[in-house]
Input
Amino acid sequence: MRATPRRFIYAILLTLGLGWIFLSVDKNNASHPRTITAPQTGFLAPDFSLQTTSGATIRLSDLRGRAALINLWATWCPPCRAEMPAIEKIYNEYKDQGFIVLAINMTYQDKISDIPPFIQKYNLTFPILLDETAVIGSAYQLRSLPSSFFITREGIINEVVIGGPMAEVLLRTRVEALLK
Amino acid sequence: MIEIFRALFAPPRDLILLIAALWIGLAFAEKRSEQYGISKERLNNLVFYSLFGYLIGGRALFALANYSAFVGSPLSLFSLNIDLFDSFGGIVTGILVGIVYGKRQNLSFWNALDALTPISAFLAIGIHLSHLAAGTAFGAPTSLPWGIDLWSATRHPTQIYALIASLVIFGLIWFRKPELFPGALFLYFTALSAGAHLFLEAFRGDSALILDGFRRAQIVAWLTLAATLIAYDRLLTHKGENE
Output
């Protein structure tokens, strides 16, 4: 093909592309998922209300204004065990800056009697919540343990980490980003 | 069907799809590398060194950007956590390592890009499959009958749109007639990919927006398309002048 008609076709293609860009403008931010609840980055974290091992009740939506790490775990899961000391360390370092850890035990697939010795062994001081009816496993579409959800102060999921163990430095970078 | 696929390759198992795509793409590229004056061994070395650069560069640049976090635990540089990674930095480093290797081996720049194109095309297929498995790169809500239920809504199956586009693009580049000039295959692939991205981004539900609602990825795709068409035109004109 000669240069002139070829360049004319290129110009038409690029003009059509520009037109499509203008047609695709999302002025009202309608495609943005922030107002919808789902266990995925960019969405509102599914709300829940669960009992802790000490009998208190914690509701996620009551914690707005604080950055949170929701960690789904079980006592029999080796990577869950391996990452607990790092989570505890980071929790202690950042809790005064508005960071909280909600470690939700998948009690429906764990032994409730194994939890207190586990807490004692790792000296865990953050709240341990119990999911006895798989309500969290379902709401957060649990596919493997551990699964971790980093939640902003506004309740939006900032990052999802499936599997583990998470290194201390990974926790630190993500928590510092949440607290900025 | 989609649910079974998603359960089977849920993260972090979706990485298997990427590795498989890279491997299959390399096998395709090996079949044609001699056409571009690059032996299979050199092609493999080029891919291996670039991949090595990608991995090392991605981790090193992530560590540099988060220097304070790594100071306390420098051994974390060798952590197996794939999330401790700067993807953009990794890609840039991988490309630089590939260029250095190519220079040292006196590989023609455009011929090397042509030889690598089947790998890029197959990797794109793997990336879209990985998105489908992970539920990432999801679509905007829709009432169309082929919408899929994902993240609390019926959505455009943008991962499937992109997968179909990448399969068509792979077919187009694989069954294309012999090249007009060195670099033509790569530029053809880049233009098709940018065009597909520009079109399909409109259906995404997770677009990064700039300047009062413009989708950033569409702007980048349009600029890539424009640059590719200009480069194609220049190389074609240059070839005509030489003849």
Remarks:
- The CA atoms of residues 9 and 133 of chain B lie 6 Å apart.
- Chain B touches chain A through 47 residues (CB under 8 Å).
- DSSP finds nine helices and four strands in chain B.
- The mean pLDDT of chain B is 91.
